[in-house]
């Protein structure tokens, strides 16, 4: 989370600019209860955020200038991921900026654990028996966007999965020469070899070489024709971004159950 904020600040601050990180303990009042919080501020002197865009800065697939995707890379996922991780841990995050070329400040507040509370994070997805739903499940994750890849890896591992994350279809095929996972989760829009091409190649393999592995397409392409094309390529499920963590985990559990029947 902090790494994403720092990366974002450095990316949008020109040479000669400044990025400052501050950590302090503060009090946050909720109703009549005063909670102790750890506050992290990442302050930069860079590009800044326009008042019109500021309310949308934490939304998925949103960037202030469409051209920044080409200039700086990424899909506008980093800050959305920060917000989701912070909220999963019971915290808050907000952005402040006086406008373009005026720099920006991102403020994260996370609740401090009391000594009496065991230092064990709660899983994102829980069951009555408290077991992680993806325990021992091996997942091959394929996505060319580093923010998305890291966040999905985080979610899956929090729920017990063992994840091998790859950045391209070619990398995924190389992994399959050494290792057969329980399930594949793949993006569709990737350079050189997209998700459709990858899945077609996988389905052409013999079963003992991974040809029948259950597979989920997780993509921003949300039209019905995109779903049909994914199914025709060999995916069993088509999920669209942004995706709630519980929905993501439940989809994997459901798919594996279907394939064991």
Give the SSE string.
Answer: HEEHHEEEHEHEHEHEH
Give the number of DSSP strands.
9
Helix content: 25-40%
Round the Cα radius of gyration to an integer and report it.
21 Å
β-sheet strand percentage: 15-25%
How would you describe the shape?
Answer: globular
Query: Average pLDDT, to the nearest integer?
Result: 84
Please explain how this structure is put together.
With 261 residues, the protein is α/β, with parallel strands linked by helices. It folds into two domains: 2-111, Heat Shock Protein 90; 138-260, Rossmann fold (3-Layer(aba) Sandwich). The chain contains eight helices and nine strands. It has helices spanning 2-11, 68-72, 78-88, 146-158, 169-176, 195-203, 224-233, 245-260; strands spanning 19-30, 33-44, 92-96, 104-111, 138-142, 162-166, 183-186, 215-219, 237-240. It has a five-stranded parallel β-sheet, with helices on both faces. A four-stranded antiparallel β-sheet has the order 1-2-4-3. Helix 6 links the parallel strand 7 (183-186) and strand 8 (215-219). Helix 1 packs antiparallel against helix 3 (78-88) and helix 5 runs parallel beside helix 6. The longest helix has 16 residues, at 245-260. Residues 65-75, 116-120 and 122-130 have low confidence and may be disordered.
